[in-house]
Amino acid sequence: MAYYRSQRKPLCLSPDKLEEWYNSLQEGTGSFNVHCRMAIDDVVTSIHRICSSNLVPFDVDRVVKSGSLGKGTVVKDLSDVDLVAFVNPPHLQPIIDVGPQEYKKQLAEVLKDMARALGQLQNVRSIDNKGFLITFKLINIGPRSGSVSIDLMATADCHLGVADNVKKLFDAMLRQQRSDRLYYSPAVIENQLAFVKGQPTAVKALIRLVKYWSYEFLPKGLQKSYKLELITIHCWESAGRPLRLDKAQGLRAVMLMLSNLSQLRVYWTLHYDAMRAEDVITRFQMRRPIVLDPSEPTDNVCSLYTEGDNMRLVRSAAQSALQSRLLQGVQVRQGWN
Q: Ranges for the Polymerase nucleotidyl transferase domain (predicted)?
């Protein structure tokens, strides 16, 4: 099985052919990206229009495009799209003001109305209100009538530009059980988005390669991209943050890290300090691999790898990649060039 899988692109290529293959992948992605953005923009415009009419009892301040599309890490046919609608009070009040129980009641009403309104849009199908978010499929994208699955969340603005509100949010999350902490996470989506979106072009290119590898060689439940984006960024930072890099060296470095996940322990001190991060790791008895979300410290985005056989599955796939024609003879030098 490992031999068969290593015969698929890009792992079957020689290192000098990787750049050419990546560019051909991006050509298809570029066209899809443009049409997808236009279709998503139409949905966002429709949400604003619906929420400013009498079809629903609330209005929306803004809709943030997250996921691969918002971060600039789209890969054709393999990308996730998340939308987060910031609903104005009083129909949805900030969770840091009303607490999770009242917030969940308000959110349930908002999502019910949103799901009903989405059903009136021509190119929207398969609407499913999951209680925390709405999933739906957007069809007829571009000249080839592509489609994309979308997660739509709603939240209220916690005004995290105010330092006291950030502390209030994190303190509140620490008091909640895991299931309730999920309802706080959409409030930090803009900080989460900015962290990946602000990375250099070369890093985003490497992220796309890692994402393509994950969709080709990992089980479906382990393909979610955010944890892989953060691991790739950490790997790049460890190499000295090169702005120009050899993709084969970068990919090999990421595979080496994924084959040794039990040693991974990382966080970023952009929106919280090291003391806060260490307190959370200890309080929640987090097990490695530990990669804390840069936007909020209570979420170890790699916790899924500690469940069942997941770490072994990722390690096995990464080790197979390291033994492939593409990566086997590649030497990882400092600076990846």
A: 57-108
